[in-house]
Amino acid sequence: MQMMSGLGLVVATVVLTWGLATTTVGHAGPPTAPNIVVVFVDDVGYGDLSCYGHPTIQTPRIDRMATEGLRLTSFYSAPSCVPARVQLLTGRYPSRVTLGRTGAGGSGGIPDQELTLAQALKAAGYRTGMMGKWHLGYTKDELLPVGKGFDYGCGLPYSNDRRRPWVKSEVPLWLYENTKKIEHPVNQDTLTTRYTEHAVRFIRESGDEPFFVYLAHSMAHLPVRTTDEFRGKSRAGLYGDVIQTIDWSVGQILDTLKELGKDEQTLVIFTSDNGPWLDLPGRMLQEGNLPWHAGLPGHLNGAKHTTLEGGPRVPCIVRWPGRVPAGRTSAEMAATMDLYVTLVKAAGGTLPDHPVDGLDLMPFLTGETRQSPRDTFLYFKGHGAPEAIRIGPWKLRTADGTQLFNLDIDPSERYNRADEKPELVGRLQERMHAMTEETKDAG
């Protein structure tokens, strides 16, 4: 949608959209609800896939997924691990959800009043499985995936660097299956392949039941690891090897769906939690890990832990043969919270009775409409107040002074136009303040 002089029409539209976003009515599902697979990779940047422009990393299966579906170029998550997972699994901005510490030694987790994506889909009749990195609570069984709506869970409770010598922690990093600790020390070389094997087995064992697979790879979060089969195969070094292992994983999922005759019945989404970890702390540069063992933000500015575009803007590909038209690329805005609402509604499920921040993307994904329902996005660095807002093409960022960018013209955020457009800055500030108040955790 184009901007008028100032921001009048855009703000009016956003206010209406915001009202729709916080509607909490249920949804009478479609005649046939899809199986759902969400592949959620870790620290993979906007420029790390060949279909997003990387010159030496080869991702043929992900690229093919893009040619058979929709590739989004303005898809937003969060600039760090935990807020990204909150947005995906609750449909809400992180400021609404009080977790506490969820890493090694932390006792926090998803509050009971939240309805997770898995819980909503399970209530709609889905068999639900989670493989990979959780990072949303682990000290009690009810905080683990199987306590938050997943029938099966296997993986790490938090990031793969939360162990000595990477951090000063006496808490051992265990691999879990459901509520049982099954491996310590963890063989990280095989994490990607083992997660994939569990996901494939879960799909096969689902039979005729509708299923939801949340495959949250621990890679390419440092320290990066892969198996001998993939090591040394990429021109982009170890990091490229890790990304190409993930590409293999996506291929295994798609091949399994085709073999089982479930290809056209399954909605598959590939995306990342945040951009690449470029400003590495010194603790990460040990045991053979090097500064270039991290990804690329592509043409974007910034990286993980920043609200510049390279932090929260990530690759996203959506594939559903026969429903999502093939071969499309779109710069329309969408976000992880929207996946929550879209998937619950596609499954015929019911949204929670508290406000959510996601929007139903399905008419846009299926080509019924050319525009995404999302025209505004708040940039949170963590769980506090947002540092930036985007409305239409305009982004106001306040973390480093006052910065105003037109992202349609200047996606690399090189040209600060705040001095040129003070009225626009003021209106965006007002809207960011209003939305900050609206999205505060009510306690």
Summarize the structure.
This protein is α/β, with parallel strands linked by helices and 443 residues long. Helix content is 25%, strand content 17%.
Describe this structure in words.
This protein has 443 residues and is α/β, with parallel strands linked by helices. Helix content is 25%, strand content 17%. It has helices at 8-21, 60-67, 81-90, 117-123, 191-205, 237-259, 336-346, 362-365, 422-438; strands at residues 35-41, 70-76, 127-132, 152-155, 175-177, 180-183, 211-216, 266-272, 313-319, 328-335, 376-379, 388-391, 394-397, 403-406. The strands form 2 sheets. It has a 10-stranded mixed sheet, with helices on both faces. It has a 4-stranded antiparallel sheet with strand order 11-12-13-14, with helices on one face. The longest helix is centred in the middle third of the chain and has 23 residues, at 237-259.
